[in-house]
Design brief:
The complex is a heterotetramer of chains A (148), B (300), C (137) and D (395). Chain A contains five helices and five strands; from the N terminus they run H-E-H-E-E-H-E-H-E-H. With 148 residues, chain A is an alpha/beta fold. Chain A has a five-stranded parallel β-sheet. The longest helix of chain A has 18 residues. Chain B has one domain. Helices cover 69% and strands 0% of the residues of chain B. Chain B is built from twelve helices and no strands. Chain C contains three helices and seven strands; from the N terminus they run αββαββββαβ. Helices cover 21% and strands 32% of the residues of chain C. Chain C is globular and about 50 Å long. Classes of the chains: A alpha/beta (148), B mainly alpha (300), C alpha/beta (137), D alpha+beta (395). The interface between C and D is large, with 44 and 40 residues.
């Protein structure tokens, strides 16, 4: 019984403080500036406790946008391994979901879910900051059910 | 026996210190967010952060040296004991204490934090720790000068913080009679807790997260707790030494909130120093504090 | 500036097309360096080297932009072993474009010290902009 | 610090994933203590091979591809591409379409400059100005949303003109927002110029001497901050820039602060142009978009414009089909990053590295090429791959 209680509080805390890391893997940085705009006063993500961390060691949510180029793929895989376990991967923008407009480029290595398991997809080219916020919140709810 | 145990463990002791340091750091983040036109996180956000970190997986890089898991724990413990030695609302949890022991624990705590950076042998952590130690050389000088001024001003050579507390209650705030020493103290507090403009060791723009780059899970939680408690301890010390002491708990919390507001004001308006600017700035304020030291010695 | 350029290159190149501010001039390979020295006297800023493989030969267009003139000098080089002198001594900024064309089309610029290929990862195709990369060239 | 002492210095891999950049870029910084000895810029992470893609799409599809080369300057890429195709055909677009295109380009310059101020302040550790500037940038994005319905990738211009019209009834609202932005611009000019801490972190840092600007063909505000008066809108006027009176901002110092101040005063110029364009919008004659042929016979054309970061250059060759034979894109950031970083960073402090790199406003998706910069010294220490790999493993 006590273990259930600890698990419930940990889950609740995990939902309340999502530290995220943003990595652009070869898109047109339209999604990156919209992801940066999520920090500014109009769409502030810090009211949900979110902090933009630069370090894969400290993050829980990986916000990855852009169709993965061949050159950044090894780095992407290493960053995925470096993030500690209870983590959620969010693919932002249509490039990350389906290689988008660069589907037949010779230097693109395929959508994100070919490289790592993706939990939440946020469509849009680029998705508006409200859509990104909604995606992050959905990722948190999904996180709670996953560990229920 | 139980009464002193409660005093150490619960009321002005560990429980109270840790709870209020989380609360102060939450208010600190909320106020600075508010000043940036943002809504900012709820005040009890640090509780969630630390709880979440406890539930995270612990990763230990294989290049890490022996002290990797040891130093953060020592840092947290030494800073909490420093907290136990400061007079909170007139009561010193561990009985009467000498200021030198308090300074020792604070310095040892910060040193352990930087040693944990060295032991994680990550290039960014090493550079972050080197910067931390350089900055430590900078802010120790004004800190010790201002504490000496407070000691001599209260008329006793061997300083007991509780005694200074009483002295201030009887005849007025020390910071009014010795403004330079108070300014030096405040600058050293900013530098000690690495609040902008002194957040150089963990400047995440240049060196990813400074000395705690490699830490995750419980060890990172310990480091963050050490940070928050350090802020609370220095605020409590500031109240006891310069800002008019406090007898009952309400004035203590009120003055603490005012100090947190002033500190977060500095966080919002100042950009980051480079390490050599920070060193020069601290030493200038050290000499400013010396003026007050001479005034106290010569007795006018 | 365009008429001072015309005076300079009367014998060497002939201008075959102008639209708006742009002037296109064609030169052949042997007096390529002389024309480059002449243009170096007019402007030190090279804007781009555009390589293009049209199946028969590789065309390199050297572009210089300045007051009211976009000057494009086209030179054609052989497709099998593309080789041309480097202009980095006259225009240091051109080293960047030469490296790019070396990567994309395999054009060797003799005289460019660090002609290295960093663009593509290890697994990307060798010279993607050449016409028929299937030929295994 | 001669080259052979490089052996004992520390290799610090900065990037490709780093809080400093919006995108991925890897700097191998040779550090001796805190001073930078040498920098190897190694980009290429953003390279998607757009030029090769453009040869496999027809002229209309390429507009959407040109727009997604760089999210910050998507408008200028579409306008330059459409101008290049119009030069191929020899097409003249309606007068009102020219004004609307200029409005979109200047609005984009505004939001790109405000983005730059925010990133610049963020690098200096001043989060508040980052929050303020990005809050004001939302005002520009609101105007863009009023016109094109989109914050990024507006999809406004097409070959032969513009696809949507500026809503006449909302122009007073736009002018009110522009006045608000002008007031904020004055505030930021005061903040960046007079704040002691910012001056301490930017005056005399990352100096770019004037004689090197043309030699290394460095373009845009970075060149103008070092005293070279180059602005494509004045040198080779296109659209309606010659009909409106505005002046080019040039400063002499060539350090980080000069680059910031050039961009701040360019914000005022852009607002002046925008107001003039909004007032002088000509009436709608027949159409906003002239009909363009689908197949273009063999021809070649060039188009040069002024992107927020410098001179953008397109070169197109057509071959009688509906797909371009060759389309060469030379973006301003490609030259600025490749050539200027080596000069600016040598001998600086490590703590100033993000500030100097951010001061040339790198846009790495623009620069989808990569080069190793190593401008002067040919040889230097060769570090074996395993050593670097081990270093990065621990990161």
């Amino acid at each position: 019984m006590l273990f259930r209680l600890v698990e419930k509080t940990l889950n609740y805390a995990r939902k309340k403080s999502p530290w995220f890391l943003h990595l652009d893997t070869g898109g047109c940085n339209g999604c990156s500036i919209e992801l940066f705009a999520v920090l500014n006063p109009r769409y502030d993500i810090e009211r949900f406790g979110g902090l933009s961390k630069a370090n894969p060691r400290h993050t829980d949510i990986l916000l990855i946008d852009g169709a993965v180029t061949k050159k950044i793929r090894p780095r992407l895989e290493r960053i995925y391994q470096q993030t500690p376990e209870p983590k959620v991967v969010v693919a932002v923008g249509s490039c990350a979901i389906s290689k988008g407009i660069f589907h037949d480029a010779y230097n693109i290595d395929g959508p994100l879910d070919k490289i790592m398991p993706v939990d939440v997809y946020i469509p849009g080219c680029p998705p508006k900051p409200e859509a990104i916020l909604q995606g992050v919140i959905k990722a948190l709810q999904l996180w709670e059910e996953k560990h229920e | 026996m139980i009464e002193s145990l409660v005093r150490v463990l619960v009321y002005p002791g560990v429980g109270f210190i840790v709870f209020f340091s989380f609360l102060y750091s939450g208010i600190f983040r909320k106020i600075s967010a508010r000043m940036q036109h943002r809504i900012g996180p709820p005040i009890w956000q640090p509780f969630f952060d630390i709880l979440k970190l406890l539930g995270k997986e612990d990763i230990k890089p294989e290049q890490a040296k022996i002290g990797y898991t040891f130093w953060p724990f020592v840092a947290m413990i030494s800073i909490i004991t420093a907290g136990l030695l400061t007079p909170i609302a007139g009561v010193v949890p561990l009985g009467n204490s000498d200021i030198v022991v308090l300074i020792y624990f604070l310095v040892f705590g910060s040193l352990c934090l930087y040693l944990s950076g060295f032991s994680s042998s990550n290039p960014f952590a090493v550079i972050g720790s080197v910067r931390g130690i350089i900055q430590m050389i900078g802010y120790e000088f004004p800190f010790v000068v201002s504490v000496a001024v407070a000691a001599l001003a209260s008329g006793r050579l061997l300083l007991f913080p509780a005694a200074v507390n009483m002295y201030q209650i009887s005849n007025g705030w020390l910071c009014l009679s010795f403004p330079f020493a108070a300014a030096a103290f405040f600058v050293s507090v900013l530098a000690k807790v690495e609040i902008p403009p002194f957040h150089i060791p963990e400047a995440h723009q240049e060196i990813v997260s400074g000395y705690y780059t490699e830490y995750t899970g419980k060890k990172l939680a310990m480091i963050l707790i050490a940070h928050m408690v350090k802020l609370f301890v220095l605020i409590a010390l500031g109240i006891a030494l310069f800002f008019g002491g406090s007898l009952d708990i309400l004035t203590f919390i009120a003055k603490g909130l005012v100090l947190v507001f002033v500190v977060s004001f500095f966080r919002v308006i100042l950009a980051r120093f480079r390490i050599d600017h920070a060193l020069k700035f601290c030493w200038v304020f050290g000499f400013v504090g010396m003026i007050d030291l001479f005034r106290v010695l010569l007795g006018f | 500036m365009s008429d001072s350029f015309r005076k300079k290159i009367t014998g060497l190149a002939e201008i075959y097309k102008t639209h708006g501010n742009a002037v296109f001039a064609k030169i052949d390979k042997k007096d390529f360096l002389k024309t480059m020295e002449k243009t170096a006297e007019l402007t030190e800023r090279i804007s781009s080297i555009s390589g293009h493989d049209n199946g028969k030969t590789i065309e390199l267009v050297y572009t210089f932009t300045s007051e009211k003139l976009v000057l494009n000098i086209k030179v054609e080089i052989d497709r099998k072993k593309p080789k041309i002198e480097s202009v980095t001594k006259l225009f240091p900024g051109a080293g960047v474009f030469e490296r790019e064309n070396f990567e994309m089309l395999g054009v060797v610029f003799s005289g460019n010290k660090n002609l290295k290929k960093i663009l593509l990862g290890k697994k990307s195709p060798k010279t993607p902009l050449r016409k028929n990369i299937k030929e295994g060239e | 610090m001669k080259e052979k002492d490089v052996r004992k210095c520390y290799i610090l891999p900065v990037g490709p994933q780093h809080p400093m950049y919006v995108e991925a870029e890897n700097l191998m910084v040779h550090v001796d203590g805190e001073t930078i000895v040498n920098v190897d810029v190694n980009i290429g992470y953003m390279h998607r091979g757009i030029e090769e893609l453009m040869q496999r799409r027809n002229y209309i599809q390429n507009i959407y591809l040109a727009e997604r080369i760089c999210g910050i300057c998507s408008g200028i890429h579409t306008v330059t591409y459409c101008q290049c195709i119009e030069n191929l055909i020899g097409l003249e677009i309606p007068e009102r379409a020219k004004y609307i295109r200029t409005i979109i380009l200047e609005l984009e310059r505004l939001h790109s400059h405000f983005l730059f101020f925010g990133v610049m302040a963020y690098e200096m550790g001043l989060d508040t100005v980052f929050m303020y500037t990005w809050k004001d940038r939302e005002a520009v994005l609101d105007i863009l949303e009023m016109i094109s319905g989109n914050r990024v990738n507006y999809g406004m211009s097409a070959v032969g003109g513009v696809r949507r019209d500026v809503p006449e009834n909302r122009i007073p609202e736009m002018i009110k927002k522009l006045d608000y932005l002008e007031k904020r611009g004055q505030y930021y000019a005061k903040v960046f110029y007079s704040d002691k801490l910012i001056r301490k972190r930017s005056v005399g840092l990352g100096l770019l001497p004037k004689k090197l600007v043309d030699k290394y063909s460095i373009v845009g505000p970075v060149a103008r901050a070092s005293g070279v008066k180059t602005d494509v809108r004045k040198d080779i006027p296109y659209l309606v820039y010659d009909k409106i009176d505005w002046n080019v901002i040039v400063r002499e110092e060539g350090d980080v602060l000069a680059r910031i101040m050039v961009k701040i005063y360019e914000v005022f110029e852009s607002i002046k142009i925008l107001k003039a364009c909004l007032k002088a919008l000509p009436g709608l004659e027949k159409t906003l978009k002239v009909k363009a042929p689908f197949v273009i016979e063999t021809n070649e054309a060039v188009s040069v414009t002024e992107a927020p970061r410098g001179e953008l250059f397109y070169y197109a060759v057509s071959n009688g089909t509906d797909k371009p034979e060759r389309l060469r894109i030379r973006t301003p950031s490609f030259v600025n990053i490749a050539n200027s970083l080596g000069i600016l960073l040598k001998g600086q402090q490590l703590a100033d590295l993000p500030i100097i790199v951010a001061s040339i406003d790198p846009c790495f998706s623009c620069c989808d090429r990569v080069t190793l910069i190593d401008v002067k010294s040919g040889e230097r220490k060769t570090v074996d791959e395993a050593y670097l790999k081990r270093l990065e493993e621990r990161k």
